[in-house]
Structures are given as structure tokens and as C-alpha cells.
Design a protein that fits this description.
Elements lengths: L3 E5 L1 H10 L4 H5 L5 E2 L2 H10 L15 H19 L5 H8 L3 H9 L7 H15 L3 E5 L3 H13 L3 E4 L1 H11 L5 H33 L2 H6 L1 H15 L7 H9 L5 H7 L17 H14 L12
Parallel strand pairs: 1-2, 1-3, 3-4
Helix pairs in contact: 1-3, 1-10, 3-7, 6-7, 7-8, 9-10, 10-12, 10-15
């Protein structure tokens, strides 16, 4: 792939870990140069086991299945650990305030996180090693925010996990279309299960905690929950972070409720703007498209 570099975000790595049932996907990744920022790897370790909760996936209710897959995750983390950089070494090169400078330049208002550090790391790879960086993330709000930075600085492009699977597909002659369809289906299941679990928690709160008095005294909270459930029912992720911002603003008053939904916060990374398709919509669309249209591999463009 020459000077092309694939930089992975935490959400993409976690998805790849969960959809790779036999470890073959990790082997295919060795065909490309992959990097992970040090900060991102810390986020992966903090969040990769959350999906083992039975609220996300019923197959992990069985204790043996849970323990076995936890061991598989540990093994796969070893592979991704080998791909991370050392931010201390990076900052020795460019200065301790490097991430703060990029945050200031981009007017990024959130605290330091994997997306910010990846954007800064991508610029470093672009300028120091002359890499064209493709940053793969499922965090659509971050993708929209940093796209201008990537484009204006000519760093590369920001893509998602679907795009990364397609890249691996056309690079590998043994990667069949059926395999790609299966991985996309697994990715859809992986992303939809937390949405289903989140709706269940919200509906349980509505049915067990919200009576007439509670509704009168907490109209905004009840209204936000009701609106969010409707959006999740319709897989409508537009402007859902407005609900998250509200929930955070009433955390002190409704701490028990807030703590019950905190594990579902990655769902809010699916937010899209305008008429842009969500990740779930894109998975469905691409899976339909590859049944009708060919994605060319190397051998397909040369006559036999």
C-alpha cells in the first residue's frame, strides 16, 4: 500500500474484535499498515468488555461462553497492542503541548480523547513520515468535526468500519463476497444490540419509575426519554446528542437513572446530521449493493 496508513479508532477496533469470530479478519489486516494512537488503545481496554454484558447480547448469559470469549478478546488485544504508538515518545518529538495545540487550532471543545489524539497523530504521520492517512472511526460526530482538518491539511480521509472491511476485501483475493456479506451482517448485529438494550432500560424506567407525580415534577426528563425511545425505535440518530447533553445536565438530580444508562453512551456516537445515512443504514445499503454490483479486485481489472 506504499505510503498509505490506516489509523483505527477505538470503536472500530472493538467492532472488529467482536465480528471476527475465528480470528481470520485479524490475519487479513497484516496486508495493510495499521496504527493506533496510545490514547485510543487505553479507550479500547476500558470499553472492549462492555459488550459482554447480557443487556447487549444474550449469548453471553452462559458463563462458559462469556469466559471463553473474554479469553479471545485478551488474545486479540495483544495483536492491536503491537500496533499502538508511544505518546510520550511522540510528545518528546513535537512538544508536551502538541495535543493542546491541535485542540486549539481545530477549536475542539471536548476534553482530550481518542479522536483528538488520532487527528493530531495523523498530522504527525503525514508531515514526518509523508503518510496519506485513512482514519477509520464509527464516531460520526467526530468524523464530521475533523473532516475539514483532514481535508484542509491534506492529511488523508476519515472513513468508517464498513469502508475498512471493503478495503480488506479488495486487497485479498481469498476474501470472498460471501465473507464480506457475513462480516457486514455481524457488524450490524454488533451495533444494533446495544440500541435494543438501551431501549429496554429506558422503557423499564418509564414503566416502573414514571407515575403521575413523577411526570408532573420531571416533565423535561420524561419528555426527553419519550422522544429518545421513539428515535431509537425508528433508528433515527439525528441530533440524539441533545438528549445526552440533557441527561448529563440532570445527573446530580437523577443519578440512579444516569448510572443505569451510562454504559450505553457509545450509541450516541451514531448521531448523524441532516440526510446523512447512519452507520446502520450504510451497512444495510452496502450489503444490498454488493449483491448487485462488483467491487473490483486486482485480478478483475486484468484479462485472463
Amino acid at each position: 500500500m506504499g505510503n498509505i496508513c490506516c489509523l483505527l479508532d477505538a470503536c472500530t477496533v472493538i467492532s472488529l474484535i467482536y465480528i471476527d469470530s475465528d480470528g481470520s479478519l485479524l490475519k487479513r489486516m497484516k496486508k495493510v499498515e495499521i496504527k493506533i494512537n496510545d490514547f485510543v488503545f487505553s479507550e479500547i481496554k476500558d470499553n472492549v468488555y462492555i459488550n459482554l454484558n447480557s443487556q447487549f447480547n444474550s449469548k453471553y448469559i452462559n458463563r462458559n461462553a462469556l469466559d471463553n470469549f473474554r479469553k479471545e478478546i485478551d488474545q486479540r488485544l495483544t495483536f492491536f497492542r503491537s500496533l499502538k504508538n508511544d505518546n510520550e515518545e511522540l510528545l518528546r518529538d513535537v512538544g508536551d503541548d502538541y495535543f493542546d495545540r491541535i485542540s486549539c487550532y481545530t477549536a475542539y471543545s471536548k476534553k482530550r480523547n481518542g479522536e483528538l489524539c488520532s487527528a493530531a497523530y495523523a498530522l504527525y504521520l503525514s508531515r514526518v513520515f509523508e503518510k496519506k492517512v485513512f482514519f477509520y472511526t464509527e464516531d460520526y460526530p467526530a468524523r464530521m468535526f475533523f473532516s475539514r482538518f483532514f481535508n484542509f491539511q491534506q492529511i488523508g480521509h476519515i472513513k468508517d468500519t464498513v469502508d475498512f472491511l471493503i478495503l480488506l476485501y479488495w486487497l485479498d483475493e481469498s476474501f470472498s463476497r460471501r465473507m464480506l456479506e457475513n462480516y457486514l451482517s455481524e457488524l450490524y448485529s454488533h451495533k444494533i444490540l446495544p440500541v435494543v438494550g438501551f431501549k429496554q432500560v429506558l422503557r423499564e424506567f418509564q414503566s416502573t419509575k414514571v407515575d403521575g407525580r413523577f411526570a408532573r415534577e420531571n416533565r423535561s426528563l420524561v419528555g426527553n426519554i419519550k422522544e429518545l425511545v421513539i428515535k431509537l425505535d425508528n433508528l433515527d440518530f439525528r441530533s440524539i446528542n441533545g438528549h445526552l447533553d440533557y441527561f448529563k445536565s440532570v445527573r446530580k438530580k437523577h443519578g440512579v437513572f444516569f448510572n443505569s444508562i451510562e454504559k450505553f453512551f457509545p450509541i450516541f456516537e451514531l448521531e448523524v446530521g441532516g440526510d446523512s445515512p447512519s452507520l446502520l443504514e450504510k451497512i444495510t445499503h452496502v450489503n444490498d449493493e454488493i449483491k448487485k454490483n462488483q467491487i473490483f479486485k486486482w485480478k478483475d481489472i486484468f484479462p485472463a
